[in-house]
Amino acid sequence: MSGQTTPQDRGQPLLTVRALTRRFGGLVAVSGLDFDLHAGEILGLIGPNGAGKSTTFNMIAGTLTPTTGDIHLAGRPVGGLPPHEMAARGVMRTFQHNNLFAGMSLRENVMIGMHVGLASSLLGVITGRAAVRESEGAARRRADELLDFVGLADVREHDVTTLSFGQGRLLEAARALAGEPRLILFDEPAAGLAPAECDRLGRILQQIAARGIGVLLIEHDMRFLLELAHRVVVLDHGERIATGTPEEIRHDRSVIAAYLGSSARTTAAGGTDA
Amino acid sequence: MKTVVQAALVIVVLSAIGFLLGPWQTDIYRKLLLWIALALSYNFLFGVAGQVAFSHFTFYGIGAYAIVILVTQVGMPLPLAALAGVALCVVLALAVAIPATRLDGFYLALATLALAQLFIVFLNEGGAVTGGTGGLASYRLPDIAGVTLSGPRYTVVIVLLTTLTWGVISRLDRSWFGRACRAIRDNPQAAAAMGIDVARTRVIAFTLTSVLAGIAGMVYAFVDNTVNPPIFGLENAFLLLFMVIIGGSGSQFGAVIGATVLYLLPFVLAPLIGHHHALVFGVVMLAVILVQPRGLVGLVKSRPGAGQ
Amino acid sequence: MQDLIEILISATAGGCIYALLALAYLVVLRPTGVINFAVGDWGTVAAFGGFLALSEAALPWPVGMAVVVIAAAGLGWLTERIAVRPLVERGAPVLAPILALLGMLVIFREAVSLGFGPDPRPIPQPFGYGRIEWGLLAASYQSVFIIAVTSAVFVGAWYFFERTLAGRSFEAVALDRRAAALMGINLARVTSCAFAAGSALAALAALLLVPNTSAHYLMGIPLAIQGFTALVIGGVGRTEGALVGGLILALVEQLTMRYVPIAPGLVQGVPLLLLIVFLLVRPTGLLAARGGSA
Which pick of A149, A160, B144, B165 has the fewest CB atoms within 10 Å? Predict the structure, then answer.
């Protein structure tokens, strides 16, 4: 697919990452990483195992503090903020292993994603203030819309423990969207999905980006990623070795070299005919 | 509006019962209502927010002692003493919760266990202020606006306490706050990713429920017109935990059922096994955890505590 | 001076009891992440076992002690089978076994109360009431016995955890249960052993304590609290932390009692305050040993 407008010409990036570095003791997991991500863009982050993808992801999500370097969201510095602060600033994430709230319905799970927008005075909650009830009702309706968007509307009252793995993935996407984010970080969303489920998730990611939300995608499934991403950043040993459109990345020698010997190489090669 | 009517109806019915009972039944009825109030707020803390705290009964005791001391020894007017008691509960709850809930794990259990024991030591050694091991007695509730609240009229006060606790807890439970608490209980990491300030939410849940326990304690203080250390010890803290677990952790109905069953069971069991009902509680609680983690309420409802 | 030395020795002996209890927590906490409040009531059951073996049956101390400690290990094994294993197998959160063990605590205590009634039961001193006096050093036989047994236990525990493969496997399970499973460490067996050892240690602590205090069915909760206070003070990262924590706790307690002019009742509050202070200033201890399971 590709061939879309290159997002660089859209003015100020949504997310800028500059000289981002993270050390664990003596090990440098990410070193001097630079990249930008624009609103409405799907940016893929790839690299062999141990390349520093997850470390980068976790620094942007707030679960890891950068050792040095800057992360800016819409021009404001956000590096080192805790996860809930990142979420409050419009950065939502999904988890590699489904991280749903068990014992709650799908709808409630999505409503938890709306926490930042819903949280109001507890006094209002206790006294049953009308405004609180109204926003609760509105949240419920919006949750149902989002569940409809990801195609889970008919099971919205069910307990999440009854969902299949793939449905859980879709629910995570809906939950991340519920926070009205500016940026969603997807941590290997296609892992463990059947092909049909992958397609569905891919379409949802495209629709999310079409709403003007930035999407940062870490993915092992190269075919999935190269099909969806507008641009790709390739990491190896904690450093950026290439940036470009999926087409450029497919033919980049350093990328192919980095993947030599790993099974991903065949996947990457197989991706060319997609 | 409908809920207001329902609530009023419940209050009227529960109060009316208070006017029909003899002295012995009144005593049981009042204490049952107090246990239910405590179980409701503790269920929110333990069952909904997932905090293992042993201090709930301590705050009940703090409320009870505070109001008696402030009214009889300091000579404060009742409303002011009640406010001061609430303030004391807030300060103490924050002092415990801010350091203890900052971290995962069972710090809160340890810290609150220590607090509970410390409170008893303090009561025993408090001299004339706390009355030592004998506690405080021979005081009575001051008249409020010229009205003497005693007998069935005081039962109405307890009914109001229990229904208000139910109302506050159920509103919290069904709000964004209750969802945030459940989210943290199930998965703090994912909760934080949703924008929930985990530490802050935990502190608020602990403080709010502890204050509710303190208020219940203030009401309790004028039930027997005596407060003494053994009432507020760990025994009852454990009993409260058992009530919530056996009734159905996380469910308000479960809390009511658990409190009712465990409070009334000893009266039934006494002729059979004397004072060893705690053994039965232990066995039942173990069985519930092993076999029916949703508690007694889980036997009736298919999906308890998921909100409506 | 002699007074101080005698206090130091008796505090050391008291600290040894706390240290054994802390170790009883630690051997369970390390591989399972479970903080087992039933430790104190394992001690209660063992104390009454000691009453039966040493007072009623009048077995010689070494025999009676061995019998009770071995029986206690069996009790620990049984506790794990009943209250922990089914929950772990079901994949219940780590809180579930902790609560189930609270249920066991009550069952133990009430069973003892049912069997022996509310009166304290005496247990004979292993070496009578004699004292050793050696220059400035003066100590009761019992203190010396406690210190000797505890030293031996801690040397053994240290050697086991730091130097043997089996001991290392406890550590590995604690750090990463999944990795431990991959390494072929038998989780179920480690957990069983941990509970058996924990109960044996609690029994040892109780047996060393009761000749001075006698057995009572309500002795469990104070033992449980003293044990985890020592554990929190000493930290859970290292085996010797339990010993250090126990000794610090007892020293502070005894020195306060002797030299600080407060009511004796209030002295009971000192360890609790110490616990709260340590939770405030050193809040890393317990977390470090908790495995990934939350």
Answer: B144
